[in-house]
Design goal:
The protein is built from 6 helices and 13 strands. It is of the alpha+beta class and about 290 residues long.
């Protein structure tokens, strides 16, 4: 939110600077007058019914519509290209402030006031230079951070898919302290009975092409909660689960065993082996 305000403040600063310099040109120079009278760089009061640098003259109505449309496109561009860099904010702020400055001139006067006269170059104003500078900066940025932004969004999608898969896999897990039901929350799981917390940490390779995230039966001796990336770059991404208990800050929970149908039994492998031992069987019962 703060960085969004920086963009708006930059656009407002360009707008005010443009309007103030145009006011000075109109107030101290007659139409067509230059200061100094001769020289390579001068201040010349002119009026422009076209676009920047005198292009497309006598097209005021069409240029008003183009200015409105341009401001909307810039706002949408900023919202869709996330995460936005400071250079992108600078580029869009320059363009939005310049477009708003020239738009106000067209609405109030029917033309744009130009005053910066440099050699053979067409006379222009602060808004024109801001728009051109912002466009050049945007063209320079194009192809440099866009690919990086794509990788950032890809990494977020992969992480979210992996987390969702783990959440679905562990929804029916049992608390290692009181055997209560572990309910999924934002950062992991919480026991609905005793409040024990279980956190999850993931390591995901974001440099390879994204592909569908899915869970697969773990190989022999591997973590049953491991998440694998399918596709040609088949690669394991393990999750490490820590349980907060009243007696210990954190300990690694042993893997929870699964029945033949793939459902969690609620017991660890050691507990399940102990439950099936002959010493725990009642009279007349035989181990299965």
């Amino acid at each position: 939110m703060y960085k969004d305000l920086v963009l708006l403040q930059l656009a407002a600063l360009i707008f005010l600077a443009d309007q103030f310099t145009k006011y000075l040109a109109r107030a101290f120079l007659d139409f067509g007058e230059s200061f100094p009278r001769y020289g390579f760089i001068r201040i010349t009061h002119t009026q422009n019914t076209g676009s920047a640098f005198g292009l497309f003259p006598d097209q005021n109505t069409a240029l008003i519509l183009v200015a409105f449309l341009g401001i909307i496109i810039l706002a949408l561009l900023y919202r869709n290209l996330r995460p936005a860099t400071n250079l992108l904010r600078l580029s869009l702020g320059l363009q939005m402030g310049g477009a708003a400055g020239n738009l106000l001139d067209r609405l109030l006067q029917g033309h744009v006031t130009d005053f910066v006269d440099i050699g053979p170059w067409p006379v222009f104003n602060v808004a024109d230079s801001s728009i051109v500078t912002g466009l050049l900066l945007l063209f320079w940025l194009h192809g440099i951070p866009w690919e990086r932004f794509g990788r950032g969004r890809q990494a977020e999608e992969i992480a979210e898919a992996a987390r969702s898969a783990l959440m679905d896999q562990r929804q029916s897990s049992w608390c290692p302290v009181c055997d209560g039901v572990m309910e999924p929350v934002t950062w992991g799981w919480r026991c609905s009975t005793c409040g024990v917390k279980e956190r999850i940490e993931q390591v995901i390779d974001t440099h390879k092409p994204s592909s569908e995230i899915s869970t697969h039966p773990a190989a022999s001796g591997s973590d049953p909660d491991a998440v694998y990336r399918g596709g040609p770059d088949f690669e394991a991404t393990h999750s490490y689960r820590y349980v907060d208990t009243p007696d210990a800050t954190a300990h690694v929970e042993p893997p929870i065993s699964q029945d033949e149908d793939g459902q969690h039994s609620g017991l660890t492998e050691n507990e399940e082996a102990g439950a099936a031992s002959p010493s725990n069987l009642g009279p007349g019962e035989r181990p299965e």
